[in-house]
């Protein structure tokens, strides 16, 4: 049986993609946008994080998540 491993950078990359689609910037904000699970009290949704500003210098660059 082979061991399946993921690098930290791979996980960071995929989480950043999901966070962007949900409009959040950290794991701490996920509870405000994801539906509550069974038996979890529900809270009103919080506003999404504001979009990040980009400068003319960095507008064409891809973020690496590092």
Automatic annotation (TrEMBL):
Q: Where is this region: Disordered?
A: 28-66
Q: Which protein are we looking at?
A: LuxR-family transcriptional regulator
Organism this protein belongs to: Streptomyces laurentii
């Amino acid at each position: 049986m082979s061991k399946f491993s993921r690098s930290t950078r791979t996980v960071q990359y995929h989480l950043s993609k999901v966070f962007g689609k949900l409009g959040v910037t950290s794991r701490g904000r996920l509870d405000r946008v994801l539906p509550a699970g069974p038996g979890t009290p529900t809270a009103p949704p919080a506003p999404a994080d504001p979009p990040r500003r980009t400068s003319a210098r960095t507008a064409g660059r891809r973020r690496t998540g590092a």
